[in-house]
Design brief:
heterodimer; A: alpha/beta; Rossmann fold; four-stranded parallel sheet; B: alpha+beta; Alpha-Beta Plaits; 2 domains; nine-stranded mixed sheet; two-stranded antiparallel sheet; 11 strands; elongated
């Protein structure tokens, strides 16, 4: 057990990040369980504690009497310095056990810019960074989350990955591990991994050899043992009503990023935006029933004491019984001072009416995501909203008393012209004028937030060559010169961060050495602008003789074997190819949830179906 | 309305949380306890609870005070039982009693705080020299201290806020300092700041960074007798 010297705690910022003891945290005697799991999120406490997936896994694992699950996050740079100075190994927040003493260390990989933190945490934990260098005394290191769908850039550092939804597969993994341990660890580490490879959704990268063509593209991905399947298909929960949810989550003392009850209405979104990776990975749409949701909410209010329930889903406003659930929650909990919030809004007036209902008079500003500035561009990305939709929604918001509006856009999309980019500015001005028209005076505040499009694996745009940083910067300046009104504020992302994200999101195993070199040269917290060291990364690429532009900016052909081709999301390649063509032709593909099936392949392929209680009865 | 005055602790388990974190944790416990607590009117209702004095990050306490307004009266025993069960590790409800609704706010009545500081002594230190540093501080007419905050620098006289002489004892390599500090409408001094002045200006030879601060009590005093706010009539 690690004992922290008060001298350290008195020195670091927000020491409560490191001292645990939060409500609902579970402390078990490791001698009385069969399997111990450290659940890690490679970012700072406030971010890591906000992840819903890990809350769910924590509860499922700790509900098992044979398993102890504990949390671990990336220590902030000041704490890291203290830990290194005093040789304090990375430890868990429940029992202050060194992470290296757990059986399993699971990293939730939410986005690419936290890869350097994974390495840093392994190093702080005194676990060999390379899976190949780990021995009997070390834990197994597993990765999951959206980035596991292209795990190749970090394949060297993980013993295995879990592809897809974790609720069920995590119990399979624990069962295999418990049995292997009980039997006296037959065949050592590989013995466990071979047994595990039989579990659907488990990918053991060392069981596959990758060869490359002279031009650097992948030639073959070949299983090197009989246990390895040629294709690893994601895990998907058929019915969310039957699996556990996080009903007794750890309640932090610190003010974390999402410091409220997260009520997941449904999983999946089939609106089919062509840039969106989550829209593919979490197919099909599966709703929880209103009864189930009210029941979960009741438990969460009782177990946490939070005063806010946030309805989280990829597009919460699409929930079939939204009005019913919102009204039900307000009726049940408002006298306890508990409010309801809707984080993502669909662009229509129904949403505004609901926003009005849930937010009462807290007119803190509404957020809309038109994603692109012109209709042509929105057709390309299959964002099924029109300028009229936006005008109606924003108009309704202004009439209801809102005066500040935030608009989210992307630049760098396929087929984009300067006219499309400037369309963003036009839209912002239209919103400003709309306010004046409705209210008869100036006074609207429009925030235009523009991110740079990063093509992601498993999407229709996975073949697209990302815009070069210079091109992105030119487009940003173009917009900036047009957005001069004092009623408009303009935010945009660092093009270099998006570039690096692009490299890793579609990278292959050759990038492992670059990551290692960059981490050795000091890269960490790359997602935090104050710690992002672009030069360090460029030097790492140079040192390893790896061309980053090959990964980020190159248009792939449809015949090319993509590094993640052996990982299956359930969506057919043919569907993605077709969607890319539809995009170029500016054609719309409807939402299969309430319209015709677009034959993406998920439902028949994985024996699942859409669960939408607006379409079918659930009794 | 029914106003309850409570005496609560902040224990070792939660030493490093801030006052806001502490208040939030109690608010959540009250909600979990299903107590009929009152909320303010308006669109952003907040729970009607009020504390005597904020406690800094890194400081534990024997006796904090909080007033809670209830929409309907519940028995003190029931309140203690229901809330006690929901308090997280590190917060203990020691006592509660109903006070008059018009009772002066805790913040306005508490004017004295007592602390114990346990701080490691450097190995080569002569106990006599520690006592000497403390004596000098106690005898000083004024002790200038520059407080730096994001709002800027402000100079205070630490002695304006010292209600009694500091006492020191040496125990197993630690100096144990007892301080009694005034809380005035225009401000106060933190025990950590007093320690910083002792080290910086009076050569107190201790490892300041390793200090553990514990608040032993909050009081109302008229200059003669110090009474905990829960015992006020």
């Amino acid at each position: 057990m690690i004992k922290l010297d008060p001298t350290i705690m008195n020195r670091v910022t927000k020491p409560a990040r490191y001292t645990g003891n939060e409500l609902n945290s579970v402390k078990k005697d490791h001698n009385r369980v069969k399997v111990t799991v450290a659940l890690a999120l490679p970012d700072v406490y406030e971010v890591g504690m906000s992840n819903l997936g890990l809350k769910i896994l924590y509860e499922i694992l700790n509900d098992r009497s044979d398993t102890a699950a504990e949390r671990v996050y990336a220590p902030w740079v000041d704490m890291e310095a203290e830990m290194r100075k005093r040789q304090i190994p990375l430890y868990s927040l429940e029992t202050f056990t060194p992470v290296k003493d757990f059986d399993l260390v699971g990293f939730s990989l939410q986005y690419e810019m936290i890869y350097s933190n994974v390495l840093n945490m392994l190093d702080l934990a005194e676990i060999p960074l390379l899976a190949a260098e780990r021995t009997e005394v070390h834990p197994f290191v597993v990765g999951g989350g959206p980035c596991a769908y292209n795990p190749e850039p970090v394949a060297d550092f993980f013993d295995f990955f879990v592809i897809g939804e974790g609720e069920e597969v995590i119990e399979d993994v624990v069962a295999v591990l418990a049995e292997w341990k009980e039997k006296g660890r037959p065949e050592g580490r590989n013995g466990f991994l071979k047994r595990l490879a039989a579990v659907q959704g488990v990918y053991v990268p060392s069981f596959y050899d990758v060869s490359y063509h002279n031009d650097g593209t992948v030639a073959t991905v070949t299983p090197n043992c009989i246990e390895a399947k040629p294709v690893i298909t994601k895990r998907v929960v058929k019915d969310l009503n039957t699996v556990k949810f996080a009903t007794k989550p750890v309640v932090p003392y610190l003010d974390i990023v999402h410091d409220r009850i997260m009520l997941e209405l449904f999983r999946g979104c089939t609106r089919g935006c062509r840039f969106c990776q989550a829209g593919v990975l979490y197919r099909p749409v599966r709703e929880r029933t209103p009864e189930k949701l009210l029941n979960i909410a009741q438990q969460l209010v009782e177990n946490t004491g939070y005063n806010e329930i946030s309805l989280t889903s990829l597009s919460s406003a699409d929930y079939s019984h939204l009005r019913e659930i919102v009204t039900g929650l307000i009726e049940r909990f408002s006298d306890k001072g508990v409010s309801v919030s809707l984080p993502s809004l669909r662009i229509d007036s129904f949403s505004i009416e609901l926003a009005q209902q849930v937010q009462q008079v807290r007119k803190s500003g509404l957020t809309f995501a038109p994603e692109a500035g012109t209709q042509r561009m929105r057709d390309v990305i299959n964002k099924g909203v029109t300028e009229q939709d936006l005008e109606q929604a924003v108009g309704a918001a202004f009439r209801q008393g809102w005066s500040s509006v935030k608009l989210y856009f992307m630049i760098g999309l396929p087929t984009e012209t300067d006219e499309d980019v400037l369309g963003i500015a036009d839209l912002a001005y239209k919103v400003l004028h709309l306010y004046k028209e409705i209210k008869g005076r100036r006074g609207a505040k429009v925030t235009v937030s523009v991110s740079s499009f990063v093509p992601k694996a498993h999407t229709a745009f996975q073949w697209f060559g990302q815009n070069h940083t210079a091109e992105i910067e030119r487009k940003q300046q173009l917009l900036k010169s047009r957005l001069k009104d004092r009623g408009i504020s303009f935010n945009y992302h660092d093009s270099r961060t998006s570039f690096l994200e692009g490299v890793f999101s579609r990278g292959d195993r050759k990038l492992g050495q670059v990551l290692l070199a960059a981490w050795r040269a000091g890269a960490r917290f790359d997602g935090w602008s104050e710690y992002f060291k672009y030069d360090v990364w460029l030097e790492a690429f140079e040192k390893c003789a790896i061309d980053p532009y090959f990964y980020a900016n190159r248009e792939r052909s449809e015949e090319e074997i993509l590094p993640w081709q052996h990982i299956a999301s359930g969506v057919d390649k043919e569907f993605l190819v077709q969607e890319y063509q539809q995009a170029i032709q500016e054609c719309f593909t409807p939402d299969c949830r309430r319209d015709t099936c677009s034959a993406c392949g998920v439902c028949p392929g994985l024996s699942v179906e859409v669960l939408d209680w607006g379409n079918q009865a659930y009794e | 309305m029914n106003k309850l005055r409570t005496e609560i602790t902040k224990g070792e388990e939660i030493r490093f949380i801030s006052h806001l974190d502490y208040a939030r944790a109690i608010e959540r416990a009250i909600r979990r306890a299903n107590l009929p607590v009152a909320y303010s009117e308006g669109f952003n209702p907040h729970m009607k609870i009020a504390f005597a004095s904020a406690l800094a990050v890194g400081v534990t306490s024997e006796a904090e005070y909080m007033d809670v307004e209830l929409k309907e009266a519940v028995s003190v025993e029931q309140f203690i039982e229901q809330l006690g069960r929901q308090l997280p590790a590190g917060i203990r409800l020691k006592q509660a009693k109903y006070v008059d609704q018009r009772t002066t706010a805790l913040m306005a009545v508490v004017n004295l705080a007592k602390y114990t500081l346990v701080v490691p002594v450097h190995a080569d230190t002569d106990p006599q020299s520690l006592q000497e540093s403390i004596n000098q501080f106690n005898q000083a007419l004024e002790v200038r201290y520059v407080r730096e905050s994001p709002k800027g620098k402000k100079e205070i006289d630490v002695k304006d806020y010292m209600a009694e002489d500091i006492r020191v004892e040496i125990q197993d390599g630690f100096a144990v300092l007892a301080m009694t500090i005034k809380i005035t409408p225009t401000g106060s001094v933190k025990p950590g700041e007093v320690l910083h002045a002792l080290v910086g200006q009076f050569a107190l030879n201790v490892a300041e960074d390793g200090v553990l601060i514990h608040r032993t009590g909050l009081f109302t005093t008229d200059g003669t007798k110090a009474v905990p706010p829960i015992d006020l009539q």
